Every structure is written in structure tokens, then in C-alpha cells.
Amino acid sequence: MNQNSRVKRIFGSMHFRVLILLLLVGLVPVFLMKNGILQGFEDQTVSMRASMIRNQLSRLSADIIDAGYLSAGGSGETVSGGNSDVVDKELAQIADLYSGRVILVNYRLRIIRDTYLLDEGKTVIAKQLIKCLQGENPDYYNAENDFIEVICPVIEDVTKTVIGAFIVSIPTIDIIVARRNLSRAVLIMEVVLILLITLVSLYASRLLVRPFGKVTAMMNSGGTDFLTDDISMPEYTETELLSEAYNQMRHRLQAQEESRQMFVSNVSHELKTPMTSMKVLSDSLIQQAEIGEVPNELYKEFMLDIGEEIDRENKIITDLLNLVRMDRNSPDIQIEETNINDLIGLILKRLRPIAAKRGIEIALESYKPIIAQVDQTKFTLAISNLVENGIKYNQENGWVHISLNTDNTYFFVKVQDSGIGIPEEDQGQIFERFYRVDKSHSREIGGTGLGLAITRQAVLMHHGAIRVYSREGEGTTFTVRIPLRYSEQDQPQV
Predict the structure, then answer these.
(1) Which of 93, 241, 300, 399 is positioned for an S-S bond with 361, CB 3.0–4.6 A?
(2) How far apart are CA 357 and CA 392, in angstroms?
């Protein structure tokens, strides 16, 4: 096996595909979990930090209102006093606690206090600030520049109006450091999970496909006789169905092998019998010649017997060739529009002289004209065999009646005789090759044991059906049903 074939076989194997599926199912959640954990940690930490700041600023709002930071008639000027020093210290403490900047803005957007002492007295216009003064609580997290901005309103308790706002900007270096530490921990956990999932997937994929390997091994095992041993793999429904299909196939092959061996044995016997007879006759003539002159009568009798055996051999070979042609997977079949009444009339015209020798009457009864699509040669062969059997296995001065009928889909041929009949126990086997009900009588009248097998195969090739009804000593009836229109899609019927 070359390298390309080996690679193709590996990638096309069920084991490989199950392994890939298990790895995808196991590893994709692991990678998603890492991003989810880190992002969730970051979002939750930022949210908690913003919430803490907002709570602290809410508590500070009351002191600011009492200190008059945002009073003085709306002028924006602050009043002096001890309370203002306390507020300044609290603002500075919040700024120092978070290593950030705290700005206090009045409702006119003027900066009253700035812990950085940079922008006091200036006016700030920002979308988020305006939303806050309108009653919202917006937060802003800038992951690229690593800072959080929290805007918290200052609400007057009595009127419940917004008279100012806090703007707090704090760095997130500690959050970034914590995220990196968590990322390293998650990475270690991720590597461990990947290794664990890979090992589990390898084991599970091998375990899942093992029953299929067992089925293959049992099929290829040198210790298993293909035609005698069934296999059983009940692990999965699929392997059980596969085992059942294999066993059914084996049984069919076994039946075909037995049929083939029987057929070969029968063919050998049937072909050998005429040859043996001819050998005995010729040896007898030779011995007679050695003793003295062979009488003309004896010579003629022996030569006639040899001719009959040659004819018999030729008929067996002809019947075998007909069976072989019809047994092929794609047998040649020449379908044409045919007047069935006229065709059967020609068949009976040819067979009436044979029947007349034994005083057997042949009668045809037709109910209506029938035009159907058939292979004339094969159909003629089938009907001829049925009528010939009715003549051969009949009583002296008996009769053979043939009737034709049709409906919208099929036409029917019935062949009845007044012959010896077929025992019930033999009726299921009469269509088998070389099967004879009465071997001695069949040989006497020249039967090959192939006529009904040929008839059945010819009928099946037309997607028809054949049935037999008979009682021993009371005659036999064969009924043939064939579609009026031949179709490749029709299924043959037994």
C-alpha cells in the first residue's frame, strides 16, 4: 500500500472521524471557557469596582449638600467652613484609595472641585455627564487605556433634583494584573483539560468502533468457516443489524453453493448417462464384430439407440445453454408487440402431431384478443415446455386444454392436462433444475429435468408469475400471469 493510499485510508476511517468529532466536542468548550472566564472576571471586577465607588459617592453626596459646595444661590461659589474641609478630605481619600481623580461638577457643568487641582472653575461638556444630570447613571470602561470612569449624580433630598455630579476616573492596573494571573491559571487548567480530553477521546473512539473491528476480524478470521459459522455482535443496534445482514448473506451464499454443487453433480450425471449408454452400445457392436459378422437388424437397432442417446445429449446441452442465457444478470431479452393468440396457436400447431401419436387431444380456448409485449422466443419456450409436459406425462387418449384471458394489466395462460398429476410433497421442488418426480418414467419419455426450470426463468424475465395446482392421478394445472406492458422497473414474481 503506497503512502497516499495509507493516508487516505486513515482519514477515511470511522475511528479517525469519531476521534475528531469527540475532540471538537471536548476542546471547543474548553477554548470558549477560557475566554468566558477571563471576560467574566474582568466584567465582574469592573462592575464591582464601579458599584463600590458609586456607593461611596452616594454617602458623600449628603456632606456635599450640607457643606454648600453646590449652593450659594446657584453661583457655583462654595461656602467656607469646617464641613468643606471634611468634604475635601473625603474626596482626597477616595482619589487616593483608587489612585484616581475625582471631579465635582454643579448643574451648570462647572467644575467645583478637582483632586488634581487642574480644571477647577472650568466648564466640562460630555455626553455621559449630561445623561447623569438627566437622571441616568452611566459608567464607562476603556480597556485600551486601562481606566474606569464613573459618573454619579448629587441629588437634593427634599426636591429629589440633580444639582451636580461626581466624575471619578481610576486606573485598572490591578484588574489587569489580576486578569493576567488568572489567565496563567486558566491556561494551566486548559492544557490539563486538553490532554485529558485527548486521552479520553482516543480511548472512547477506539472503544466505540471496536465492535465494527470485531465484525471485520470475524469475517476475515481464518478460523471462521464463511459458509458454516454465523456471527453475533449485539453491542450496538448497528453492529447487530450488520451481523444479521452478514448472516443472511451467508445463508444465501450457502444455499447458492449447495445449489451449484447439486447442479454440477446433476449436469455431470445427466451428460454422462447418454455417453455411458453410447459407450456400452458401441462396445457391444465391437464385441459382436470380433465374434463374427454383425446382423443388419442388430446393427441397425444399436445405431438407432446411439442416435437417440445423441439426441438426448443434444437436448440436455440445448436446455443448459437456454438456462445459462437466462441466468445472466443482464440477459438478452427482445421485447416486441405480439399477438398472443396467434403465437400460442403456432405453438400448438407444432405440438399437435406429437400429441396425436398418443391420442391426446389439444384444445385452445381464448376469451378475447390479446396484444402484449413479450420476447417471442423465450415466451414460446416457456409455453412449449408446459404443453409438452402435459403431453409427456398424460394418460393415453387424454387431453391438454389451454385457455387465454386478460384484464387491464395482465394476460393469463392456463395449461391443464388429464395426466398422472404431481404429489403434493413434490410441488414445491418441480421448478428446480434436474428435479424429477418419477425419475425412471421421466427418463423413459426423454425428459431432462430442465423444462420447468427454463419455463419459470422465462416467466420471471417477463416479470410474471407461475403457479401449479395438481393432485396425484387427477392431472395438473399451470397458470402463468404476465404483464401486458413490459417495464424494466417491474419486479419479478415467483
Answers:
(1) 399
(2) 11
Q: How far apart are alpha carbons 314 and 324 in whole angstroms?
A: 15
| Predicted TM-score (pTM) above 0.90 | no
> Cell numbers at residue 474, please?
387427477
* Residue of 33, 6, 382 whose CA lies nearest to 193: 33
pLDDT in tens, 32-64: 777 788 878 888 888 888 888 888 888 888 777
Per-residue pLDDT, averaged over 289-296, amounts to 69
pLDDT for 85 beyond 60: yes
For 402-455, the pLDDT digits (tens) are 999 999 899 999 999 998 888 888 777 787 766 666 554 444 555 556 778 888
Q: In the structure, what pLDDT confidence band is assigned to residue 292 with cuts at 50, 70 and 90?
A: low
SS (H, E, C) 173-234: HHHHHHHHHHHHHHHHHHHHHHHHHHHHHHHHHHHHHHHHHHHHHHHHCCCCCCCCCCCCCC
By the 8 A CB rule, do 376 and 336 touch?
A: yes
What does DSSP say about strands 371-374 and 336-339: parallel, antiparallel, or unpaired?
antiparallel
Query: What one-character-per-residue DSSP string does 150-172 give?
Result: EEEEEE-TTT--EEEEEEEEEE-
DSSP-derived letter for residue 82 is: H
Half-sphere exposure of 95 (CA within 13 A, CB side): 17
Q: Find where cell 395449461 sits.
A: 415
Per-residue confidence (pLDDT) for residue 403, from 0 to 100:
93
CA distance 105 to 86: 18
144: phi then psi, degrees, rounded to nearest 5: -70, -40
Q: In this structure, are residues 113 and 104 in contact, taking their beta carbons and an 8 Å threshold?
A: yes
| Position 78 confidence tier, pLDDT thresholds 50, 70, 90 | very low
How do 399-406 and 410-417 pair as beta strands?
Answer: antiparallel
Return the sign of the alpha-carbon dihedral for residues 386, 392, 395, 400: positive
